[in-house]
Write a structure and sequence with these properties.
- The chain has five helices and four strands.
- The chain is of the alpha+beta class and 113 residues long.
- It has a single domain, classed as Alpha-Beta Plaits, CATH 3.30.70.1060.
- A four-stranded antiparallel β-sheet has the order 2-3-1-4.
- A hairpin with a 6-residue loop joins β2 and β3.
- The two termini are 25 Å apart.
Length: 113
């Protein structure tokens, strides 16, 4: 199962000394490691605000929340989880893609045909 996750930073944290370049670097490194491991399938920054959109592979929302809880921003108490939504393949658009297939591979083969 995959989850669409929208993350921000608690506004009061930006004004305090908590949000610094070292913590930002740790957060970026943690997300990179999750990307390499395949836990985070995609990572995007919103163009209109200081928010991040992640596509996370997890068995349940509880597991997804545990993944987020391990992030440096979460440990520092500044992570604002704005949305966690389970998503599945849009079967009407990708009729040959089953939920059990690797969705990245399936999407690319359909898009490039």
């Amino acid at each position: 199962m995959q989850f669409l996750v929208l993350l921000g930073i608690r506004a009061r944290s930006v004004r305090r000394e908590i949000l610094n370049s070292k913590l930002v670097g740790l957060e970026i490194q943690a997300v990179k490691e999750l990307l390499i491991a395949g836990t985070v399938r995609q990572a995007w920054k919103r163009a209109d605000c200081h928010c991040v959109v992640l596509l996370i592979a997890a068995f349940s929302e509880q597991e997804c929340r545990a993944i987020l809880a391990a992030l440096p921003f979460s440990k520092a108490g500044i992570l604002d989880i704005q949305l966690i939504a389970p998503v599945e393949p849009y079967s009407e658009v990708y009729p040959d893609l089953s939920p059990d297939q690797d969705q990245d591979q399936g999407n690319q083969s359909v898009l490039h045909s």
